[in-house]
Design brief:
The protein is an alpha+beta fold. The protein contains eleven helices and eleven strands.
């Protein structure tokens, strides 16, 4: 058992909120960024953009942003112009309700929707390197912005309820729920991993153990796999509901994308 560090995070001169009062109904009094649970070297790598390997994904995402694809001869920039202005805050407010599909969309699904409907391009396959890079680039435009999703949109509250149920449901041969590690055992060590609150404000994140970027649904599926349960498909209703609930659990924390973890 070890407490999270008492430290402050600033990236490119922008102060990050790594501790915030929990929203009403939250099991903790204070929500804490996973950055506070990492070793000094890992924290230092995230704090210095020049050293952060995740910034390669941001650079690749910027290239994709300006690249024309599809039958309509458009790029992301054709509709949204300068991402530093048009995408500012976007990463802090997703998932959002989409009335047309009658479900919440995360940034990845919103990108696919734009590609199909506005560019005449194919949607990305799950975890395509360009999908992860573009998502990272878009979320990076919200660096430092506090996470806050709108549960009053459409049927978002119902999806929050389903996500909460999934968060506390034990699955797999190990009979673990998300809450088993990130609530009941928060602060303890599981092998060399210091268990955090499992906040998602830094995704996609760069992980040293895979030497690459990891998307949120990749991480969800990895945790479920580790309980020796059957993994839901990425962007399935089950995982989208979980994303709505877990994102809410990090209300008030700064977007840190791309964060760095071990």
């Amino acid at each position: 058992m070890a407490d999270p560090v008492d430290d402050t995070l600033e990236i490119d001169g922008v102060p990050m909120i790594t501790k915030a009062p929990a929203p009403e109904g939250h099991p903790f009094e204070e929500v804490l960024s996973g950055w506070l649970f990492r070793e000094a070297e890992t924290r230092a790598t995230e704090a210095e953009s020049f050293a952060n390997p995740g910034m390669f994904a941001v650079e690749r995402g910027a290239e994709i942003w300006d690249t024309v694809e599809g039958t309509m001869g458009k790029s992301c920039a054709s509709c949204h112009n300068d991402a530093s202005e048009s995408m500012k805050g976007v990463g802090a407010s997703y998932p959002k309700w989409d009335a047309k599909s009658n479900k919440p969309l995360n940034v990845e699904l919103q990108i696919d929707k734009c590609r199909v409907e506005n560019m005449g391009a194919e949607p990305y396959k799950f975890d395509d390197a360009d999908q992860v890079a573009l998502t990272t680039y878009i979320k990076h435009q919200s660096l430092g912005t506090p996470v806050k999703i709108d549960l009053s949109q459409g049927d978002m509250q119902t999806w929050w309820d389903k996500g909460k149920e999934a968060y506390y449901t034990r699955t797999g041969q190990l009979n673990f729920a998300c809450a088993s590690c990130h609530e009941g055992a928060m602060g303890k060590y599981i092998r060399a991993d210091h268990l955090s609150q499992g906040q998602v404000n830094g995704f996609p994140t760069y992980r040293f153990n895979t030497a690459g970027m990891v998307s949120l649904h990749n991480r969800f599926r990895g945790c479920i796999r580790d309980t020796r349960a059957e993994m839901p498909k990425a962007f399935s209703d089950e995982l989208m509901a979980l994303e709505v609930y877990v994102t809410w659990r990090g209300t008030g924390l700064s977007v840190e994308t791309p964060s760095v973890r071990q």
